[in-house]
Q: What sequence folds into this?
């Protein structure tokens, strides 16, 4: 077995828990959704927090490194709707503009061809402001 495959197996080692475990100590969570292997959660302030796998930039934090604890998605506006998919995320901010980020190999992000298979930060989709 090569060193590279050993590192891959260690990185993707899953731990399964048989009972619920509290994530952090915050108690002001309002809602959450799960993508294939990442989580998006909104606090009662409207701020969006992300964690989990990030190999396609689906956390929207301008990186491709996974996060093991809730991390604030940099935003000046509140998120009113959001969802996660297989390597991508999408959301609507309080100004009713639609945003997407993550894997774009099949056009999941609803963007014109960008030449990039993924985008690791939220990017506005079109100019419409009636996505509520």
A:
């Amino acid at each position: 077995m090569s060193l590279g495959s050993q590192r891959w197996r260690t990185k993707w080692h899953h731990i399964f828990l048989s009972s619920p475990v509290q994530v952090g100590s915050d108690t002001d969570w309002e809602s959450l959704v799960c993508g294939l292997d990442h989580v998006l959660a909104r606090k009662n302030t409207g701020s969006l927090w992300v964690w989990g796998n990030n190999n396609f930039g689906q956390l929207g934090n301008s990186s491709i490194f996974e996060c093991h604890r809730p991390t604030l998605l940099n935003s000046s506006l509140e998120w009113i709707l959001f969802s996660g998919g297989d390597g991508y995320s999408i959301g609507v901010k309080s100004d009713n503009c639609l945003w997407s980020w993550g894997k774009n190999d099949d056009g999941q992000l609803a963007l014109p061809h960008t030449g990039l298979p993924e985008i690791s930060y939220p990017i506005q989709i079109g100019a419409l402001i009636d996505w509520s």
Remarks:
- The CA atoms of residues 50 and 59 lie 6 Å apart.
